[in-house]
Amino acid sequence: MNPVETGKGLAVITGASSGIGYELAKCAAQDGYDLIIAADEVEIKEAAQRLKEFGTRVEAMQVDLATEDGVRRLVNGIEALDRTVDILLANAGRGLGDDFLDQDLQGAQRVVDTNISGTIALVHVVGNRMRSRGQGRILFTGSIAGFMPGTFQAVYNATKAFINSFSFALREELKDTGVSVTCLMPGATDTEFFERADMLDTAVGQGKKDDPAFVARVGYEAMMNGEGDVVSGWKNKLMAAVANVTPAETLAKQHRKMSEPGTAKQ
């Protein structure tokens, strides 16, 4: 056994500087896992200091997972510990409001690169290693946004539709390998997401949101139980159920009411 190990295994959590990602890291630390946490913000260092209070080893990496270099650096950081990854919580994500043609194209592409490209690149590496040894757990942070066309969030919702779908497909491919795949699908959550996506002037940006600690706990427990997917909160479960039987055109019109700039109640 590596003498620096303090926990019962190693958990890697992306997008862990705040919000759902930080709370997922807290769940893993409380459960006795050592952590590698990653984000593209300097605040990841502060998050690491708080997480060390749970008595496990915490390594923080400030990397941009929207880039090939960022993914490579994270993988190298994992390899440097000479540890196998027991659970991977692929939570890194980015949003962007406003209508697509008025968005900065580079910013829209960055949403795709973070939510999709960087995520699947990391999972490809870690997932292969899990399959080779016949053990591991993967949790994706998807979204109920993936069930509906995202008017004024078109790129973001489309990336979450990809993640939701990808997770189900990967789960079936890894059936009977000892590697489980779970998709957490939250609704609007009280994080910095809406501020960063420039959506504070929208109805959803100003509306009531779920507690990220609750959302993370629901997802973490579903992963540990080997469940395929979980929608956090009864209101979100209802929205997901309705979305599955509602025409896409209608969903797009409904989404406009939530995400169109200037729709926040004054």
UniProtKB/TrEMBL annotation:
It holds the Pfam family adh_short. GO terms for molecular function: oxidoreductase activity. One of its GO terms (cellular component) is membrane. Residues 9-191 form the Ketoreductase domain. Transmembrane segments: none annotated. Belongs to the short-chain dehydrogenases/reductases (SDR) family. This is Oxidoreductase.
